[in-house]
Amino acid sequence: MTIDWNDTFAKRALKLTASEIRELLKLINQPDIISFAGGIPDPAFFPYDNMAAAYAKIFADPKKRAEALQYSISEGYTPLRQWIAEHLATLGIATHADNILILNGSQQALEFLGKLFIGPGDRIIVTNPAYLGALQAFSLYEPEYVTVTLDETGLDMKALAREFEKGAKFLYLTPDFGNPSGVTLSLEQRKALLDLAYRHNIPVIEDTAYEKLRYDGAAVPSLLSLDTSRLNESAPLSDPTSNGHVIYCGTFSKSIAPALRIGWVIAPTPVVQKLVLMKQASDLHVSTLNQMVMHEVVQEIIDSHTAKLRDVYRARRDAMLAALEKYMPAGVTWTKPEGGMFVWATLPPHLDGAALLAASIEKERVAFVPGAAFFPDRSGRNTIRFAFSLVPPEKIEEGVKRLARLIGEISAAAA
Amino acid sequence: MTIDWNDTFAKRALKLTASEIRELLKLINQPDIISFAGGIPDPAFFPYDNMAAAYAKIFADPKKRAEALQYSISEGYTPLRQWIAEHLATLGIATHADNILILNGSQQALEFLGKLFIGPGDRIIVTNPAYLGALQAFSLYEPEYVTVTLDETGLDMKALAREFEKGAKFLYLTPDFGNPSGVTLSLEQRKALLDLAYRHNIPVIEDTAYEKLRYDGAAVPSLLSLDTSRLNESAPLSDPTSNGHVIYCGTFSKSIAPALRIGWVIAPTPVVQKLVLMKQASDLHVSTLNQMVMHEVVQEIIDSHTAKLRDVYRARRDAMLAALEKYMPAGVTWTKPEGGMFVWATLPPHLDGAALLAASIEKERVAFVPGAAFFPDRSGRNTIRFAFSLVPPEKIEEGVKRLARLIGEISAAAA
């Protein structure tokens, strides 16, 4: 007799299927391809010297190095949590180190929040399109996805009000130039959204992965900052009876480097207490050494380093928007992101993103990500995601030019 | 209106309650207490110089440092997986890098296996007592615990056969001087256990956290090595049709250092494929930098370093067994571990471990962990766990002497 593993697995595990994006990334790692697929930071701009110095500094200190390699508390390295609280205070967010939990990137925050809130069949509201990694994290817990359209005009607030009316475990969204849309929510929409959340008592999960990468325009207050400012002074976020509605996910992956795997979640006390216990049961704590290094590095360079990153990525975004404007045939539209790493394009309805990708790799050696995967309902077949973060400006122009040529050819043949 | 968070949480989250051991550890961090509570490595023996050199080496190499800080594959750093496969081959375990997944310590392996296999009400078999961290990880997925007694004579094989007959999602155990029991399963029991697993097609999760810390006696082959040797040559573990029944959890936390958070799981191909997808959805991958450092360090020092650790901890175990023999009153019994970090003691039935701890901290300034938490059925009230890994031999004698005096006094008063 042999084990039939699929019979052995829990029902939730059947939701685990390979990510199209990840599988794709494995195939296009060839030098002659211009790839707009990987929405990841450019390693040319990681702060290597600061990091090397921070590791060396900790190993040179007998007390610090012992702490750095030993088991630690699940909440995360206290000085790092304090630094985050102080740093966010400068951005108008009134929080407290006790409400901050350090996790393995904000991806782990999403997975934990799925595990904390979602039972089979529970309604959760996500944007259409939404970050694929969030959908992967949530899907394990078998939710019913309810979608609200997100486009250049922001969120469909009427649809949101309708869905809030019906109830949901939470709303998840990325308010600032999110992956994949690049769209930013206006202050008015944020306030209206929070009003709705309070009216229906529905938690809002705010993903701020790209928040530091704003290239122009004024920063819009985060949902958490709006939430903490409306909380009564007698019950701030750290008060067990605080009525905060926003759960905030942050990360150093885009502002410093991803592979230390350090992100965080900020939540009202009853939520963060559960998440700390979840962290303990899941993997005890984030690497103490890495947390200590991150604390050293961000204290020193967060502002100067992210300013440098903004200059680099702004030039790439500008190159991409200029090239799209210059080369794309009529019928193709795209978002104009104020920050982040992505431009989201809508093709003429007769075009399929996945088919276009296959043709584009074969004929033009240009890669991007087809959009359907970002829609829980698998609509958006005629959308594609461009990431400009990894490609120098001159190559961006060349890549967009080639892809535009291909789209023109296909459209002409279909006409 | 305010959010009633407990109404919002999924049912599984209500299982999350504070670990008694962790809460306890927060209280006893006072210099005058002799603590046998924390079952963690002694930081005096972490390989600081080798680690510092490995971090410096990676940052000095432009290609390596870029890889070290960038997003990476969820499977884990390939050279580290290859090293583990080669190292285990020297211990008689025939496996393959493709069947190895790097995780945030073996704790994450346990959490993932709970998530992979357990649906609400599913039967899983654990030893009585069992590793508390495993019970915490599994409990989130709402299993029905079935327990099989583990004591100085090993596993209750009759009870195991009876429970296997009724079916279960898996059996979880630590065959070598586990936490908390310190007991080692004989080769005969391992073979019989595997025969039963094959007969009833029940996966066996083997936790090998302490495997490198054997102080005397000959190593007993791991369950995975017995499993891979009985697999047909035409279907080794890496074959998708392999009939392997054992899932092996390993870690560097006890042999090198815990806070890099690096462990691994080895499983038949259909299982490891699901676990890789789970890793991707959960937190993408373990810190690449830490994996590269661990790869540098273990290549260089795994044998010499663990030999040193064995000398240190052997002396402490010997001191603890000698002190127990010298001071403990009649009616107290304890295990004689061949390795690991723990001695498990059974008190006279009228004594309660938790009450003894309270008295012991107050009167004798000695700490340990009451045993009940390690029993899913909360039996074992008259058991306690001693960890000897953090205490120098002379303090061990003093601590045992004081506690023995207290037990003697309480027993005399009760008689």
Automatic annotation (TrEMBL), chains A, B:
Q: Name one GO molecular function term.
A: transaminase activity
Q: Where is the Aminotransferase class I/classII large domain?
A: 66-403
Xref: InterPro entries: Aminotransferase_I/II_large, Class-I_PLP-dep_aminotransf, PyrdxlP-dep_Trfase, PyrdxlP-dep_Trfase_major, PyrdxlP-dep_Trfase_small
Q: Which UniProt keywords apply?
A: Aminotransferase, Pyridoxal phosphate, Transferase
Cofactor(s) required, per the database record: pyridoxal 5'-phosphate
Signal peptide residues are none
The reply on keyword Transferase is yes
Q: Which Gene3D superfamilies match?
A: Aspartate Aminotransferase, domain 1, Type I PLP-dependent aspartate aminotransferase-like (Major domain)
Which SUPFAM superfamilies does this UniProt record tie to the protein? PLP-dependent transferases
> By its UniProt entry, which PANTHER family does this protein fall under?
AMINOTRANSFERASE, KYNURENINE_ALPHA-AMINOADIPATE AMINOTRANSFERASE, MITOCHONDRIAL
Its recorded name reads PLP-dependent aminotransferase family protein
Lineage of this protein's species? Bacteria, Pseudomonadati, Pseudomonadota, Alphaproteobacteria, Rhodospirillales
